[in-house]
Predict the 3D structure of the following.
Amino acid sequence: MKDTAGAPSRTERSRSASTAGLVFNIQRFCIHDGPGIRTTVFLKGCPLNCLWCHNPESQSPYPELLFYSNRCTGCARCIRVCTGSAVSMQNAPPVHLNRELCRTCGACIEVCPAEARAVSGRWMTAEEVMAVAERDRRYYNASGGGITISGGEPTLQLDFTEAVLNLAKSAGLHTCVDTCGFARWNAFERLLPLTNLFLYDLKAVSPELHLSATGVDNRPILDNARRLAASGAEVLFRVPVIPGINDSPEELQAIAAFLSGLGDKFQVEVMPFHRLGLNKYRALGRNYPLENTQPSEQSTETAKQVLSAAGIKLV
Ligand code: SF4
Ligand code: SF4
């Protein structure tokens, strides 16, 4: 029940404040996650497994230990405090981490002088998240910014996302939700009244390509995109252009045809491929599937030309 149009009631606010979610980062002063200067809240857990994901620590819905082995000096402090026997050393540094035995208790992080270890994922209440976001209110006011919930996939922690948005709305902040679109439609129905702008990723339209590149069927994503577009919501569609994956002329034209079919009121942002997540894959003990793929200005420019030629407005 709402006090006034769009504003959550006192009961809703109090319930929202104590709702907890697993957060892996809160980044202040963001300028690429919606209008103005924003605080972006990154949630753990994603139903997709994109080959190019630059936030691999976002994918698992559980806390994870990152170990930057190149920083390890071999002081062995982590070995001494680890009660799970998850750390060992052979003959020389770096130490070896047995992820099967690690409980992500964080004890080794406290003692590591080299800052070689970190846990990704911390339980926070919506109220705690808002306390961070509130610090930069004057910048939001001056720039037209606000708070963005990203991930991972925000709809995977729907109660928490809704709770943070409830509090943000009550506080008069502009709200964005950055989504991959892979969710039941009723998740969007719950977020619609609380969200000023959806940042909606569209990675591939061809079903086989989407499945092989992300691990999931794209039908729910395309259906939700159509329904969101028809709902009157503000949506900025974002297309990551990945060399060798979705930058063929056929796929770019399929993406352009889908987006132009949603109507002419939506803007689209082309997102160039980058490799900034590489070190995080290593720190998670995982291989980066696109280790040998290089950024390509040519691919990005071609994508922009194809979308523009279809009458799509680019940001
Ligand atoms: S997080 Fe805890 S269990 Fe895991 S390696 Fe460090 S001390 Fe051991
Ligand atoms: S505490 Fe840090 S620097 Fe020391 S052995 Fe462990 S990971 Fe390496």
In short: The domain at 2-61+122-314 is CATH 3.20.20.70 (TIM Barrel).
